[in-house]
Specification:
Layout (H helix, E strand, L loop, with lengths): L2 H21 L8 H21 L7 H21 L9
Helix pairs in contact: 1-2, 1-3, 2-3
Length: 89
């Protein structure tokens, strides 16, 4: 995996992390920096997964794997860390 591939994965992950907060309605309980970090790490894992599967160089399949993993990770993080509400007042 080249340094350009790592930089591309980081850029995709940061973008997906920033945009992922817009997907779910309501106020997210996760700060923006955390969703961007989760997106970047997941996109790097996607790049490594694509590279291990034999996808070399800049390809649409590699980008889809990176963005897909980042999107899933951000949505899971935002959906599962919502602010808890107390049932009684």
């Amino acid at each position: 995996m080249t340094s350009a591939g790592i930089v591309t994965a980081l850029a995709i992950g940061l973008a997906v992390g920033a945009l992922g907060r817009l997907v779910l309605p309501g106020r997210p309980g996760v700060p923006l920096w955390l969703t961007m970090t989760i997106g970047a790490v997941a996109a790097l894992l996607g790049a490594i997964t694509a590279w291990l599967a034999g996808v070399r160089g800049f390809s649409l399949l590699g980008l889809v794997v990176q963005a897909g993993l980042a999107a899933v990770a951000v949505v899971i993080a935002v959906a599962t860390t919502g602010k808890e509400r107390s049932g009684s007042r």
